[in-house]
Write a structure and sequence with these properties.
Blueprint: H1 8-26, H2 31-38, H3 42-49, H4 57-67, E1 91-93, E2 102-106, E3 116-122, E4 138-145, E5 148-152, E6 155-159, E7 164-168, E8 173-176, E9 183-190
Antiparallel strand pairs: 1-2, 2-3, 3-9, 4-7, 4-9, 5-6, 5-8
Helix pairs in contact: 2-4
């Protein structure tokens, strides 16, 4: 539904900014990384993602190049987003510093809301201790199958199916799968980190 109090061009700029942000997060890129890849300043990218200002077409073309998408993809905007995410339509995300032994899929329709919900599958031996995570917010994890060790500020918590954990994301945290089978879990993060 469109807001009649906001002129159409401004709505389009906001929608394009949201699309750029979603594409950047889908690729696991920070603002600085997209800036480096596109040649567009971090400040301008931030403004565009927040729907502020009126970016030049050349800047949008550079951002599309940095995101490795055709420029038309930035304008592929739908007015309505279904609240349902079908299993075969989940978006895959690539967290910075992770390898191919983990699958991260977005369970929420997008990253525009107050929380991010992920389906995470990790292979036996998967370990993120080399690149601990640290960001604003709070996390909740629920292990569905397998085993998972969660380290929060250096303290190890071993989870088995049905166990859950909650902690502030501002402290260093990392994960490992010490088991002999894949670990499947659901993670809720607020605010979204992608």
């Amino acid at each position: 539904m469109k807001d009649a109090s906001v002129p159409e061009p401004e709505l389009a700029i906001v929608a394009v900014g949201r699309q750029i942000r979603a594409l950047r997060k889908e690729r696991g890129l920070t603002l600085d990384e997209l800036s480096e890849r596109s040649g567009v300043s971090t400040g301008l990218i931030s403004q565009v993602e927040r729907g502020k200002g009126n970016p030049a077409f050349a800047s949008l073309a550079q951002l599309a190049h940095g995101l490795d998408v055709p420029i038309g993809r930035l304008f592929h905007i739908t007015d309505q987003v279904s609240p349902v995410v079908r299993k075969d339509e989940r978006r895959s995300l690539s967290p910075h510093g992770t390898d191919d032994s983990a699958v991260y899929q977005l369970l929420t329709p997008n990253l525009d809301g107050a929380l991010e919900v992920l389906w995470v599958e990790t292979s036996p031996g998967h370990d993120t201790s080399a690149t601990p995570f640290r960001h604003n917010g709070e996390e909740f994890g629920l292990l569905l199958s397998g085993r998972k060790d969660v380290y929060v500020d250096g303290v190890k918590y071993s989870l088995e199916p049905g166990d859950s954990i909650t902690y502030p994301s501002s402290v260093p945290h990392w994960y490992s799968n010490p088991g002999s089978e894949p670990a499947v879990s659901i993670w809720v993060i607020t605010p979204p980190t992608w």
